[in-house]
Structure formats: structure tokens, C-alpha cells
Amino acid sequence: MVKFIKRERGDLFRYSVSRFLFKNRPFLFALRVAVALLFFYGIFLGFYDTSKENIFTTALFWGIFWPFFIVTTLPLFGRIFCGICPHGFLGKYITRIGLKRTMPKWLKNRFIGLMLLFLGWWGVYYTFPGVLRTPLGTAALFGVMTVVAFIFYFLYKEMAYCKYICPIGTVLRGYSKLSFTWFGSYNTACGECKSFDCAKACPYGLSPFNFNKKRSMDDCTLCMECTDACEAINFRLVKPGYAVYQRFKPLKAEVWGYILILAAIPISMAFHHGLGRSNISDSMPWARSAEWLKGVIDLGNVDTTGMFAFLYATLFTVAAATIGMWIASRILKKDFSSTFYTLGYAFAPLFILASMAHAWEFFFTTNSARIVEGMAWGFGFDLDVDPMARRTDSWLIVFHMFRWIAVGWALYILYRRFGFIEASRTRKLVAFPFAALLILFFVGVNLYRDYVIDTYGRKPRAHHIDSQHRSSADRAHRHRNIEIVYPLSTDLLWLSDTSPFGSRGMRRGMRAGVPKRSVWLMTGSLGDPKCADTDGGLFFAVDANGIVTTPKAKSGVCSSVSFEMPESGYYNLYYLHTFKAPDKEVTKVARYEFKRFDHGEHPVYDKKKMAAGTIDEVPFDILRLRPKDETFYSRLRTGDEVSFKVLRAGEPVEGAEVTLSTQFGWQKLQRSDKEGIVTFRLIKDYYPEWERYNKRFRERFVVTASFDDEDGRRYEATYFGKYTPSSSEYTSYAYGLIVAILIMLAGTAGVFFYRMRINRPYKEVKIDEKS
Amino acid sequence: MRRVREFIDGIDLRKFRFWIQLGAFVLFVYGGYLAIDLGREIPIFSCGYNDQHGGMCYFMPLQHQLARPWDRLFSAASLGVLSGFFFFLLWFIIFNKAWCGYFCPLGTLQDWITVLRKRLAIPYGRYSKVQFFALKKVKYIFLAIVLLFPLLIGAGFLDGEWRAAFCKMCPGRVITPMFVGDFSQWAIDFSSKTALFLTAFGVAFTALFFVGSFIKKRFFCFFCPMSAMHYIFSPFALLRLKKDGAKCTKCGDCYHVCDMQIFDIADDVKSKNILRDDCILCLKCVAACPEEDALHLDIVDMAIFRSTKGGFAKRMGIDLKEEVG
Predict the structure, then answer these.
(1) Interface contact flag, A747 B212, Cβ < 8 Å
(2) Do B188 and A739 touch (CB under 8 A)?
(3) What is the pTM of this model?
(4) Which of A202, A351, A626, A638 is 20 to 30 A from residue A607's alpha carbon, by CA?
């Protein structure tokens, strides 16, 4: 026994905070009592209020215990949850007063616990979905497990329940090998030890002083009893996965635990929830098998699809693991068992990392709100909180990347564990991919799932049907608000790139390939636009090289025209409609012009090509003349002068009425001069508060030109455009210069005075020796 | 061959550097007028805000690319980001940090300001060791801004106004366009709080740039995130600064001529590769070294410029024979 030891760096018992967290007896006792109280309160509430109202029990067990105490802490700190588990905590007291018998050999089988988890929980989970996740189901499950645990603790010594019967005992033992902590002892002190106090103190009958030598922590649950008996025990920070890089005696149940849990959780989920929710779910083998079974026998409430997905997942996973390892063992010329159990530890990270990431993603999207609401409900409050993130938030992709980290790590562990096998380099190299077959299978399933979801899309989820209905109803409602008008000869017609449905005209599809633009024909006023019917009109599209095509309008609630813009330059779209009104014929032209520019292509601004033009198909046209210094970067801004030219059959029109009206209702009317030119100055006509000011705001305007010719024919043309605030509206040189000059002066003065101080002239100091 | 060697080793580095720097300055600042465009992956502060740049600083496209929404950033659509990065590396590994000492327009400008200071006979300042080690960390903070802020925008944590945040804070944005007559970057943008902060920071930093580089050689390079970025990839570069510690007498000449005040150049007699994160590979140390072959510049283990007694004497105007005799 050692009373004092100098603790090395990285020993968690060396630093006061971690020492308090992991070693302080009163603190640990209080923590265990608190967890036990929560645990039993959760079970009690589950029986007391079995309705859906009870959100406490499920939030406690499935919102906190599973994702945090188990899945998150395991790959980080190891089995620290076991250290505060209510079963183990109370079990120690029960064992003390119990019969302390030795567990019979047939019960000392770790596969009992493993199968309880694999079939008893996950099998049931897929076959009877939802049963165990109700408050009553949860409470019953944990209630029964508690009673069983207490009986075992009472009967048998050395906490045998934790080792063999506890459903998560063996699994936790296995996954804790990935953590970056190691529980061991200082060999210098242990070498001289004759009293073995740590082994005497261990309720599990283990010998902590041997952990380092065995390179295995055995069944240690980090209950920290031995740390009070002897100071030589340490709890160190090590490299992640330190334990699996060591040569130790493999435990079969651990390797099978990795494989079965991988089958039961990530693979089954990918089958049943990933692929099962895609649009081609019906053609998946498990769905077909379920269909076939339905014809043979009716199993009532059983979710046969889930059952078969689980079955196939298990089958495939076990097959991939065993076949791959068998081939590897042949190549390595070793027996199957030693190869399988030595290399099988490489499968450890696949489940636990992916699952930890999933738990966190779920925490941000749903669980955080569920925990807070559930906890509040359990103690008589009523809270309604928003989740911390939305499912569509793009940063959540971080959590998806964990599964690839897991794959990389698994391959690395496999590489390290190959070092424990004696074989030639070539044999190892050839055997490696076969030994990694399960890892590759995991990769394949993930890629295939992503591929299917991307290609075939996701089916609307059953329990989201309500919201689906709501959103489609919303859409219909919004559509109903959009009035479709059959335009008359007196109505204003213009082409707009602002979608009447609220989203922008730019297509999302432009990401890859040729950019596209959609344009809608609108009528009414800019402030209150309505969709115009395009029957009886013609569309002309003009590309950057002046080639005219006649696109067809896409039918929909509001009809639109899309055109592709393969290169930089001006693209135009015309709508031409001639009305035969009773008194006269009215020709209406709506024009939309767009300057497409991709600075990645380094296009050259060719003034001739970029000049405003008209086409023969349109009898009456309005052109926006280009400013002299226009470049691809130019954009209309407040305060700019814009000139328009009115043309009829290619000839300038004098005296045409030209009106510019803006989105906010400002209007100005002018008549065209001899050359058919009108010039407007774009004004600022809206003044938002500073907080809401947007320097990139694009105010819409429409310029309308109209002209009656000698034959009594009327021509109207509209030009749609946008302008942004001028930079002089929101930038200031004066302030910039003031800031610069002040800083320069301050800096110069600072340097000057600093130098004055350190370069103080030499002064003779006389010391009077007498005084 | 020996004569070529001797010629190179005895080169007047000051003149050599001056002409290369001048040429590079014209190339990168006025390249647009000469219809030169070396792309947008240049590993120096050849600012894209200058319309006439002859090749753009890699940080501007990098920040824009990294600001893509994450689902797009981590998809095949971002192969372009990787190819851009590849070209950046390609440029970089050729010259290593000599980009800073020979080609960077902002660096050249600081050297010219230093010349002005010298003419005015004002002494230059140096950092104390404590200041040095505290301040050299700043560039990594700026590098974090360059790399992390766009990612945070893509994740939706930061407003789009923070796009290319470092560019707005960088003195290069304010200074470089001035050489083609564009003074608009001195203005402060009041359209939003973020823009206000960033542009004011930029202008303030520019003011500090002028004051700082006047009294401290290569003042800005000390805080330059590009220099930090260079250092990450410098182990892969072809051009290397090497030191033979056995031949070093720790006379400190190299340290005294070093614009960046790198202590290791004189102190460290153990490492072979003497390139440090602040180094601008100006080669002044090699030129100032009086020991035969103690410092040398290598291209893939082939020395191309070495410190020699003869070269040192020639540069210092000492006649060796006379001294010996």
C-alpha cells in the first residue's frame, strides 16, 4: 500500500479538477445517488403516467442515458458510466449482505448479456417498433432489469451480473478499448507491493496492479474503490485506441459484440431507415421477403420488413466478417480462430464513432429540446424550447464525416493488429483486404445508401405526414394568392426575373453546367404584380451572340420561360402580343435583359457585342443604352443616369411617351427626343433603418414607352431592370481618412515618445559616499 | 563551372534583389495593363482589389470558396477548391518563402519605405525577445480568420457580411489599388455593423502599416497569414535555406542583417533546415555570412548560393589578398 506517490503528467489524478471529478469520494457518492434517484424516478413515472404526456421517462433513458452516458462517454473516457450506474452502485451494497455464492459455470457466459442486447432489445426494436420506447415499455424494461440485477447481486459474489448478464456490460468493455484513458498503476510501487490492497478492495475481484502487465483492464468498471485503498493506482490519458494497439488475450465475446452491434445498429438502420425510406424501398430484398411472408402467414402487429432488414443485416455482416477473416487466415496460414479474434478488434470504431456523431447530430436537431422539455415536465414545469439546429443546417454534415473517420481508424487498427500475426509481408498484404471485408462492406452500405437517396429521393416519412400535408396546403394557399390575369390591351405587361412564388429566378440547377434563368410575364403594377397569361403571345430569346430563338413558355401556376446562358454577355427575352381592341390595334412588347458574367472565365468586354440592339421580329422596342465606361462589373446604381432609345421598325421614334416607375411607386414621364432618346436619373426612394439597410438591395423598375402612329395603331414596350444603392450612400472617405490620420499620429507620437524615453541623455549621478 | 560558382557566390545581393523586386512589383501590380494574368493562386499579397493585378493573391478566392455551404463544400462540386489549392502549392514549392522576400508587392513596398527611412537617417526599431515571441503568434490568428471564418459562414454561423473578412482587414486591399489610381478603398462602409468594423479595421491597420514599416523593417510580414500558410507547406518546397552548424562561429552577422529578426539564424547550430516561420528568404543572411559554406541556399540538395569568404569580402569591399599579405 502506498500513501503518497509522485504522479506523472497525463495522470488524471494529478490535476485537482479531474482528481475531484474522478476520485473524490463524497462527490462520486453524491453523483451516484443523484443518478440512482433520477433512474428510479424515471421508472416510477413510467408506470405512474403511461400516456404520451410522459416525456420525462423517454427523455431520461433515450435522451440522456443512451446517447450521452453510454455512446458519447465510451469512446472518450471509457466505462465511466459503469462507475455511476445505479445497478452497480446499489449492487455493491446488496452483494455485501447477500449469499456470495460462486456463479454456476453455465451462467458465466458473456454471450447471455450480449444476446439480451442483440435480440432482446434490437431484435424487438425492429420487429415490434415503438413498443420499448413508450414510457411504459421503457419503465417495464428497466424495472425488470433492475429486479433481475438485484437478484443476481444478492445470489452471487464479485458482481457477476455486471460481467455476464448485464446486456451492455460486455459491449462497454469492448468499446472502452478505444477511449483515451487507461486505468492502471505505477509499476515502480507495485513491484515492491506485498499487501495487494487494490485487489482486496475491488468489488469485482480483479487485480488492478496487474492491468498494465496484462495490457487489459478486464472488467473494470472504474468504480474507483481501489484508488482509495492505494495511491499507486492511476487513471492516465493515453493515445486514443491505446488499448487495442496492445497485445492482450482476446475475448471472443468482445469481437462478436463489435460485429453484432454493427449489424444491429448501423447496418440495420441503413437498411431499414436509410434505404427503407427511399423511393425504391419496395424493391429491397427485405421488403420483398416481407411481402412474400405476408402471403404465407399473417403475423399481425409484427413489422416484418424491419424484422427481415434486421435478419439480412445480421446475415450479411456476420458473413462478411467470417468469410473475409477465413480467407485471410488461409492466406496467412494461421488457424481461423486466432486470426479472427486478433484482427477482429479492428471492427471496434465502426459503430461507436458513427453512433456518437449520430447522437450529437440528433442532440442538436431534436434531442436538446426533448431533454429540456422532458426534464422540466418531470419536475412539474412546462417548457417549450426550440431545437438548437434545423435538420437542413449544412454544418451538420460534420457529424456525417465521423463514419469515414471511423473507417480510416478501423483500417489503421487492422494494420496495427496485423503486427501481432507472424507471417511474411506479402501474405499480410494480400490478406489485408480480406480481413477488412467487413469494413469495406460498411463503406459499401453507406455509399449505396447515399447513392440511392441522392438518385431516387427520400419517401415522405410516415410520422411527418401531418407536416407534409401542411406544407403542400401552404403551397396551394400561396398559389391561390397569385392571381392569373388574362391581360387586356390597357394592362401593363412586363417580364420579371423575380419569382411570383417568392424564391429567386436563378435556378438551383446552375451549380453544375450552364447557368439558367427563368423569367415570368407579369401584369398589374410593380408594387402589386400578378401573373399574366401567355396565350396569344410570342416569346423571342436572344443570346449573347445575337441569335434569336423562340422558346416555349413552361406551363404551371404561372407560366415562365427559361433560357440557358452559356457564355458571358447580354441575354434578352422578348414577349410580343398584339391585341385587336375595338377602337384600335395595340402591339405590346415586354423586354427582359440580363448581363451574365462569370469572372472565373476572364471574359473580355467587347463593346460591339455588348452594345444594345433590337431584333427584326419585334416592331417596337426600347433599348437601354450602355454607358461609355461600362464593364462586366458595372451595375445600375442610385444616382446614375440611364438612357433609353425608342425604336419602331428599327427607326428612332420622336415624341414617344416614356415612363420610368419604381417598385416603391416613384414615376417620371418624359418624351423622346429626335434620336428617340430619353434620359432618367435613378433616384433613391426608400429609407430603411440602419439595422435593416442592405447595400445589395435591388430595387426593381419598369420603363414603359408608348407611341400612337398615324394609322391609329398603338405600340407599347416595357423594359424591366434593377438598381442597387450607390456606394456613396453608405461609405465615407472622411471617416476613413480621420481614422487613418488619427492612428498614424498616435503611432508616430507613440514611437517618438518611446524613443525619447529610452534615449534619455546621459546624466551623471553623484553619490555622496559620506552619507 | 567554378567561375560561375564564384560569380554567383560573390553576387551583389542588394542590387540583384532590388531589380527582381522592382520587376515583380510591376508584374503583379501593373500586370493588367500588360495583359498578364498569372491566375488566382499566387502565394503573395498581390491584391485582387487592384483591377490591374497580374495575378491574384490566393486568399481572396480561397475565402470565397471556403464560404460555400457545407453540403456543397464537402461534395464533388468542390474539386475546384482542391485544384486551386494544388496550383497554389505548385507556385509555392518552386520558390518557397522567397515569394515574400522577392515577389510580394506589399513586402517590396515595405523595403522601399525602409530605404526612405534610411535616407532620412532615422534609426529603425527592433522588438525585444519577449515582444518577438508574443507578436509572432498574431499571424496564426489571422490565418485562422482566413480559414475558419469562411467555414463558419458556410455552416450558417456567421453572416455573409463576413465573407472574405481578412481581405477587408488587410492593408493590401487599401494600399495596392492606390498604385493604379484607385483610392476608393480608404472609405469606411457604414452599411452594416460588420462592414463598419471590418473596413475601419482595414483602414486602421493600413495606417499602422505605414507608421510601423517606417520604423520597423518588414513590419507587416510579422503578422502576415500568408507567411504562416507558407510555413505549413515549406517542408515540401524545392528551395531551401540550410545551415551547417559546425561551421558557424555564432558571430551574429546574419541575425543583425535579418529584417525579420530571427534569433535562430545565429543561435541554432543544430538544425540543418534553418527556415523559420517569419523568414522571408531574402538571403541577406547568406550574403552577410563570413564563413565558408556555413549558410547556403539549396534546390533539392544542390547548393546554388553559398556563403563564402570571397563573396563576403567582395560585398564588404575588403581586399582579401592585402589582408593576408
Answers:
(1) yes
(2) yes
(3) 0.65
(4) A638
